[in-house]
Specification:
The complex is a heterotrimer of chains A (316), B (415) and C (96). Chain A is of the alpha/beta class. Chain A is 34% helix and 15% strand. Classes of the chains: A alpha/beta (316), B alpha/beta (415), C alpha+beta (96). Chains A and B meet through strand 1, helix 2, strand 2, helix 3 and helix 5 of A and strand 3, helix 3, helix 5 and strand 9 of B. Strand 2 of chain A pairs parallel with strand 9 of chain B, so a sheet runs across the interface. The complex binds thiamine diphosphate and iron/sulfur cluster (3 copies). One iron/sulfur cluster binds next to helix 2 and helix 8 of chain A.
């Protein structure tokens, strides 16, 4: 593909749905909204690969599924590898004249576990080898499908089934999350020409990033934050609101890296205190002021590291 | 025109893959199977083969890549050895259950620990319950032929199952030997192009491998079971057609040698059959009425064929070049499967097990003689003497008994 | 009694749906129903783009409506509406 056709506003977003009503994802599921927007942006000529996770299990529970385009399951471990095989097969079968298909958009829709933990090896190798695939990491910040367990993307201080808070471990999760953009899109995978972060709360931006990722020849990576009412413990109607609040407090950033050049897609005028974000979710309800301060210090440090020049809240 | 060639089991399979016009293959280095990928890479580089080779980051990826390629409609292959085979374990059931007829070449190798390059069948036998079609080739020619036969059987619309062309590491993968590379026209007559009913196609969208309800699982597994039974029916037909087109003489399931008047037979698979045959010549001269049955398939297991064949004999010595620690009868996989195959047959022979050839050792003539001697004792006794014998460890042949007696006499206190 | 197994097609490969996935009807999950006040609605389509279940419908003639066969009642549409035009009304208040 050459130049992606950009969507300018919600009014211009394609009407047609390829991720249809009829799936068992929780009410208000962020990843489900991401799926819908991604499928809208990529359109009919698309094949999805779904490694095991909520976006496999909850979408297909009864030998059926909500996609109007071809979709296949992959193991949680091998989304990148299965996609690699599909990509080379299409290239080769088209080249040999064995099929008449147009080369399709190939998208891996992997959870954080399937992308950056158990699926990391396959994802990294797919990107290293330069397969023309969009590897999309929908980040609900936990191993959600197995009942919410800690993943490398779970924020510091969050409770999960494997990281409860207690007198010995008052802050619950102790580590800060991995940085997938740094891993995939900062030169470590030279074939990756396009990478971006996105959020379900900025739908036009997300859809355009999908199109850009599909337009570049070779691999592209998208890291999409997707609030999960079950895992983050908040009322389902706040999904989009929390995605916005994450950006406003520096718990999420919207930028893209195209041919090595970083561009900010949205920058708040000034960051709100991270406490405003933490307060909204049950998974942070046990945090003490010192933990909140530690989180704020981390946010401030990361903001500076990423080069976002905005006024920061005091870190205490 | 068919071409006379000199090569190994690996170059022979590269020939089969070239003739089958494979579209995708996935590599990762591990001895001894590696050379097939080196060979295919060379042929791709010089334009002899039109195929995409993906360098997987491990065996798990290799099998996953081939799986993806197959879902997209490609004829795809891969391969491995030893710990590489076990590293890919998660992928075997999804590939077979997804009914993707990819082909893997496995040049077998002893599992760690510790590292050992030698041939042993254990690696590849560990995945026998996953629904793949496979058997061991005895030599380069059979490796090539099995590859074509496997594509044909596995890609049959009524079957759609992945296959393994297994062969003994080194003995078949690396010893140079003569074989014939068939003509393209013969192959085209035998093997139709791969055209799966379902593939990933945006004009005919399907959902592959959705989650199911518990009540849907058993019918799906029943189907996988039924289809394996169907493979048993297809093997004789496909083999007969193969023999006709290529002028070969394969028995569908069991290759018999000097069994016509035999009281006792060795039952084994793979390249040790070569030494076994020459040992039998000596044994015949020494008066042992012994023959050999070599299994051409391990999945599906040729139980019906063995029910026909084995009652002709009085003693069967099953040679396992694999370990299955704690298995029923104390031997390996072939012993368990052989005994189970004929358990309900009247006049069934006495079946005893031998474990031999582990770790890449050859099974020498002397070892075949020892086994024949122990089988003869069983024959004379008319009953089992020892269920399973690890050759050179707990033998009860005459020489071993004499040594033991002499040793006991020399050191009576340790009796 | 013979056990009632459910037959699944070859390798569990099923045809993709085109309009909605009838295999998983979710409208019965809902206990709060979204109801739009067309007098307030500016047709900005924020609710439409934000629904995880694709159950907000929009047409030039009829404006915003809901696919109640599948709407889970999560309330995201109501939450994102900039003018508060979507109310969440208990299902028990409706006859259907
Ligand atoms: C090899 C393997 N290990 C463990 C599992 C169990 N498992 C199923 S879904 C899942 C969670 C997936 O987490 P993630 O990729 O983050 O997606 P999410 O469920 O959060 O959407 C796990 C661990 C599995 N399916 N396969
Ligand atoms: S647990 Fe979270 S990610 Fe999974 S379906 Fe529910 S809301 Fe979606
Ligand atoms: S978000 Fe509110 S104003 Fe906008 S279209 Fe929906 S109901 Fe109307
Ligand atoms: S309540 Fe939820 S599911 Fe129903 S229309 Fe609104 S956003 Fe969609």
């Amino acid at each position: 593909m050459a130049v992606a056709e950009m969507i300018k506003s919600i009014a211009q977003a394609p009407e047609k749905e390829y991720y249809l009503p009829g799936h068992r994802t929780c009410a208000g599921c962020g990843p489900a909204l991401a799926y819908r927007l991604i499928a809208k942006a990529s359109g009919k000529n698309t094949i999805f690969i779904g490694p095991t996770g909520c976006m496999y299990v909850a979408n297909t529970s009864y030998a059926c599924g909500p996609w109007a385009v071809p979709w296949t399951h992959a193991q949680i471990t091998n989304g990148g590898a299965v996609a690699s095989g599909i990509e080379v097969a299409f290239k080769q079968l088209i080249k040999k004249g064995k099929i008449k298909d147009e080369f399709p958009n190939i998208i891996v829709m992997a959870g954080d576990g399937g992308a950056i933990d158990i699926g990391l090896q396959a994802a990294s190798s797919m990107m290293y080898r330069g397969h023309d695939v969009l590897f999309l990491m929908y980040d609900n910040e936990s191993y959600a499908n197995t009942g919410i367990q800690v993943s490398p993307m779970t924020p510091y201080g969050a409770t999960t089934m494997f990281t409860p808070s207690g007198p010995e471990i008052p802050e619950a999760k102790k580590f800060f999350p991995k940085d997938p953009m740094a891993i995939f899109c900062s030169g470590g995978h030279p074939e990756v020409k396009y990478g971006a972060t996105a959020s379900i709360s900025y739908p036009v931006d997300l859809m355009n990033k999908v199109r850009k990722g599909l337009a570049v020849e070779g691999p592209a990576f998208l890291h999409v934050q997707c609030p999960c009412p079950k895992g983050w413990t908040y009322p389902a109607d706040r999904t989009v609101e929390l995605g916005k609040l994450a950006v406003e407090t520096g718990m999420w950033f919207l930028y893209e890296i195209e041919d090595g050049v970083k561009k900010w897609n949205y920058m708040p005028k000034k960051l709100k205190p991270v406490e405003e974000y933490l307060q909204t979710q049950g998974r942070f309800s046990h945090l003490q002021p010192e933990h909140v301060a530690k989180m704020q210090a981390w946010v401030n440090q990361r903001t500076q590291l990423l080069g976002m020049e905005v006024p920061l809240p005091p870190a205490q | 025109m068919p071409i006379k060639k000199r090569g190994t089991g690996l170059t022979a399979v590269a020939d089969a893959w070239q003739l089958a016009d494979i579209d995708v293959t996935a590599s990762y280095p591990i001895r001894p199977y590696t050379a097939v990928m080196a060979e295919v890479a060379k042929r791709i580089a010089n334009g002899q083969m039109k195929c995409e080779m993906v360098h997987g980051e491990g065996e798990h990826a290799q099998f996953s890549i081939a799986h993806g390629a197959s879902m997209a409609g490609a004829r795809a292959t891969t391969g491995s050895s030893g710990v590489g085979v076990t590293y890919a374990f998660e992928t075997y059931s999804p590939i077979a259950g997804g009914r993707c007829p990819i082909q893997a070449l496995i040049g077998d190798r002893t599992l760690d620990p510790p590292g050992d390059f030698g041939s042993e069948h254990t690696d590849c036998l560990t995945l026998r319950d996953n629904g793949w079609i496979y058997g061991w080739a005895e030599n380069a020619q059979e490796a090539l032929d099995n590859s074509l036969l496997c594509f044909r059987i596995g890609e049959d619309p009524e079957i759609m199952l992945p296959q393994i062309v297994a062969m003994d590491g080194y003995f078949v993968t690396h010893i140079s030997q003569d074989y014939v590379m068939p003509d393209q026209a013969q192959v085209d007559k035998f093997l139709p192009p791969f055209k799966p009913e379902f593939r990933l196609d945006v004009n005919k969208p399907v959902i592959m491998g959705p989650q199911i309800e518990p009540e849907m699982g058993p019918p799906l597994e029943w189907d996988r079971n039924v289809v394996m039974e169907r493979v048993k029916e297809l093997i004789p037909k496909a083999t007969a057609e193969f023999n006709k087109i290529f002028g070969a003489k394969y028995a569908p399931f069991v290759d018999e040698y000097m069994t016509d008047d035999a009281d006792m037979v060795f039952l084994l698979q793979g390249a040790h059959a070569v030494t076994c045959r020459s040992a039998i010549k000596y044994l015949r001269e020494a008066g042992y009425k012994v023959g050999m049955c070599r299994l051409r398939w391990i999945r599906p297991f040729p139980d019906a064929a063995l029910q026909q064949i084995l009652p002709k004999f009085k003693v069967v010595g099953v040679i396992d070049t694999n370990t299955s620690y704690g298995a029923a009868g104390g031997g390996g996989v072939l012993l368990v499967e052989t005994r189970a195959s004929v358990s309900e047959v009247a006049n069934k022979p006495i079946i005893q097990g031998f474990t031999s050839g582990l770790g890449g050792e050859t099974i020498t003539h002397e070892e075949f003689f020892k086994m024949a001697d122990m089988m003869k004792q069983t024959l004379d006794a008319g009953k089992i003497i020892q269920s399973s014998t690890w050759v050179n460890f707990n033998d009860y042949d005459k020489a071993a008994i004499e040594v033991k007696a002499a040793w006991e006499q020399a050191a009576p206190s340790t009796k | 009694m013979p056990k009632a197994y459910k037959q699944v097609p070859f390798a569990a490969i099923v045809k993709s749906p085109t309009v909605n996935n009838q295999g998983m009807v979710t409208g019965n999950w809902r206990y709060l129903r979204p109801v739009v006040d067309k007098g307030l609605c500016t047709e900005c389509k924020m609710c439409w783009i934000s629904c995880p279940d694709a159950t907000v419908n929009y047409s030039k003639d009829d404006g915003i409506s809901f696919n109640l066969e599948f709407c889970k009642g999560c309330g995201v549409c109501s939450n994102v509406c900039p003018v508060g035009a979507i109310n969440r009304v208990p299902e028990l208040d409706f006859e259907d």
